[in-house]
Specification:
By secondary structure, the protein is of the alpha/beta class. It is built from 10 helices and 8 strands. This is Sugar phosphate isomerase/epimerase.
């Protein structure tokens, strides 16, 4: 049986406070957790701010240690044209104080030169704090696909890497074979979920809505998840990110337990299919 302890629980799966997300991850047996520490933009309402709140930072770090859950990645402000360095820098400090290893970046600045400069500075500051930056391409953002993400990373000259999301890869027109040319060090971590083969609507608003509120449990949709996992570097961190519309009113613990059961079911079946493919290949060799 697959051990869910090896997976990370995404904050979007729970859509709760950081403290509730950590507790839910522990309750459901996940070994790591991703948390959001502020709104997506400065000024956005956020029920429990973490940046600049030393008591909250200490509480979260203590609770994670007490629960035996590692804080893997931090989502903070997304990179919009009007978000400046003075707003971005404290997120790095907070991530370091929380003991996280990854800072997630989403690019909504159409000026790639400006975004690349800020990404480089952010990446260098994160590296100084013993963290990596993972750039996630979103088909409804300014960095819409894998090729654009690689172009920005290569152009900024900083050691940022990629966050590969199965849904965003598919919705941006990508396929798992596109990942096979990546070097292992270019992939920071990956996110697993399922969805229909094609979206009901393809507008930016519809794709954003699907990503944030209507993902499907792995193995219940039509995404080529076996091929996606096969194409990832060996041992890469996998985060389970499934914001289910049918569980919108469930408690954080209920959402986390459903995610744990879904992930364990799919990953166990995937491991068996992979073993069977290997045996078949050996028999034909």
């Amino acid at each position: 049986m697959f051990a869910v302890k090896s997976l990370t629980l995404a904050h979007l799966t729970i859509s709760a406070t950081p403290l509730e997300t950590i507790d839910a991850a522990c309750f459901a047996g996940f070994g790591r957790v991703g948390i959001r520490i502020c709104g997506r933009r400065p000024g956005d309402p956020y029920p429990t701010p973490v940046i600049g709140q030393p008591t909250m930072i200490q509480t979260l770090r203590h609770r994670a240690a007490q629960d035996g859950v590692a804080i893997s990645n931090i989502s903070a402000y997304q990179f919009y044209p009007d978000v400046d360095w003075e707003q971005l820098a404290p997120a790095i400090e907070t991530g370091h104080e929380l003991g996280a290893s990854i800072m997630v970046v989403n690019g909504f600045d159409p000026d790639w030169q400006r975004f690349g400069d800020r990404l480089a500075r952010y990446t260098e500051a994160a590296a100084a704090a013993n963290m990596r930056v993972a750039l996630e391409f979103l088909p409804y953002s300014a960095v819409r696909n894998l090729a654009q993400a690689l172009e920005i990373i290569n152009g900024c000259g900083a050691p940022a890497g990629l966050l590969l999301d199965a849904l965003h890869l598919a919705r941006s027109g990508g396929v798992p074979a596109d990942l096979q040319t990546l070097r292992p060090e270019q992939v920071v971590f990956a996110q697993l979920c399922d969805a229909s083969a094609t979206p009901a609507q393809s507008s930016d608003e519809a794709l954003m809505h699907e990503a944030r509120t209507a993902r499907l449990p792995a193995g219940t949709g039509q995404l080529p998840l076996d091929a996606f996992l096969d194409a990832l570097p060996l041992g890469v961190e996998i985060e389970y990110e499934v914001a289910r519309a049918d569980l919108a009113q469930a408690t954080p613990h209920e959402k986390a337990l459903a995610a744990s059961e879904d992930a364990q079911r799919f990953m166990s079946a995937y491991a068996e299919r992979k073993r069977a493919r290997a045996e078949q290949g050996a028999a034909h060799a």
